[in-house]
Amino acid sequence: MTSAPTVRHDTRAWKAQVWISFTTAAGLCGTGLAALPGGDMERAFMLMGYVFTVSAAFALAKFIRDNEGRKVDTPLFGLVVWGGFALAVVLTGWGLLQMQISPTYRAFLGVGWLFLLSSTFTLAKTLRDAHEAALAERL
After folding, report:
1. For the chain, what is the radius of gyration of the CA atoms?
2. φ and ψ at residue 30, rounded to 5 degrees
3. pLDDT tens digit string along 16-43?
4. Cβ-defined contacts of 127-136 (< 8 Å, 24+)
5. Hey, what long-range contacts does 123-130 have (CB within 8 A, 24 or more apart)?
6. Are 96 and 113 in contact (CB under 8 A)?
7. pLDDT at residue number 5
8. C-beta separation of 7 from 129 below 8 A
């Protein structure tokens, strides 16, 4: 007799920590951008860069996970995903470095951005793990 595979679920504490980290990072970035000295164009550029980075990080996490066991996406799609992520990081970082703001403010925005990026990857993994666990339970 074969036993059904054990489906592992993340704990509620882990899920809470992941969501709290992501929302905290997004809130800190939003606060920093709202108080950003300068004009609306600078705020819009940085907001666009932060959203681009988060979106590209989710796409990259999915691409890597989908192609972990075997390649399911084309090499050109891989180039698009990796290129989009690289462009998001490089252009947002370049914009942050070019802004005429105090080093303390720049550090706040930079650390907040890295916190947001890191928590995005963690959230993407947690959501994907939950999805895979739900699929495994249906079998």
Report:
1. 18
2. -60, -40
3. 999 999 999 999 999 999 998 888 888 9
4. 128/61, 128/62, 128/65, 129/10, 130/9, 130/10, 130/15, 133/7, 133/8, 133/9, 136/5, 136/7
5. 123/18, 123/19, 123/21, 123/22, 124/57, 124/58, 124/61, 124/62, 125/61, 125/65, 126/10, 126/14, 126/15, 126/18, 128/61, 128/62, 128/65, 129/10, 130/9, 130/10, 130/15
6. yes
7. 64
8. no
Answer yes or no: are the C-beta atoms of 95 and 45 closer than 8 Å.
yes
For residue 6, what pLDDT band results from cuts at 50, 70 and 90?
A: confident
Task: Please give the single-letter amino acid code of residue 108.
Answer: F
